[in-house]
Design brief:
By secondary structure, the protein is α+β, with helices and mostly antiparallel strands. The chain has 8 helices and 5 strands.
């Protein structure tokens, strides 16, 4: 029988947000090796979650407030409120989930996205961007057969600039904010989503 304690199970739960039985089984299968058990939890709960993603509801979570002070000792100039949703209060109370909320709020303060996801972009604004990109391509003398590809590329760049989940994460631009959320989703085995946010800036 592998040697691990109730404290080890709790530590694994705190680190992954997974259920107690999932953590106990992972520690047993990993012969008490914490790192290996954490990998097992991520693999098992992530696979299970992805298989039922459409059936799950993120009805719990938290609202996180972040104030950005560019100069120590000076009043903050940017503030962010972000609602980060998950499925259970257990995950909502986990330090990793709170840290994720703070990272997302920090990112919003720095990068000033307009909406959370692509389908929230106003249709009229999107049509305007498409028309502008097409006119620009024609004015530059681009051939008709590649104009659609050029427009699609411009819209993709527009989403990358304005849509939170499409933006490169400010602390690690090798991944997008959406990929960051998905990583935590796999780790916890729960559906996690940014429900909404509000950004305030002095003088803006």
């Amino acid at each position: 029988m592998p040697e691990f304690t109730a404290a080890d199970v709790k530590r694994l739960r705190d680190a992954t947000g997974a259920g107690m039985m999932d953590c106990k089984k992972a520690l047993t299968d990993a012969d008490g090796d914490f790192a290996a058990a954490a990998d097992l939890v991520r693999e098992r709960t992530g696979a299970r979650m992805e298989g039922r993603a459409g059936e799950r509801t993120a009805s719990d979570g938290l609202v996180h407030a972040y104030l950005h002070t560019p100069t120590p000792g000076m009043p903050p100039k940017v503030g962010v409120l972000v609602e980060l949703s998950c499925e259970t209060d257990f995950v909502a109370k986990a330090d990793a989930f709170k840290a994720l909320a703070n990272d997302i709020a920090l990112h919003i303060a720095a990068m000033n996205p307009v909406v959370v996801r692509e389908d929230e972009v106003d249709d009229a604004l999107l049509a305007k961007e498409r028309d502008f990109a097409e006119k620009q391509a024609r004015d530059q003398g681009k051939p008709d057969h590649i104009i659609d590809k050029i427009v699609d590329g411009k819209i993709k760049a527009f989403f990358k600039e304005k849509v939170l989940l499409n933006q490169p994460f400010v602390k690690d631009d090798a991944q997008t904010v959406g990929e960051l959320v998905a990583e935590h989703q796999r780790t916890t085995g729960e559906k996690i989503e940014v429900a909404r946010f509000a950004r305030f800036q002095v003088g803006a």
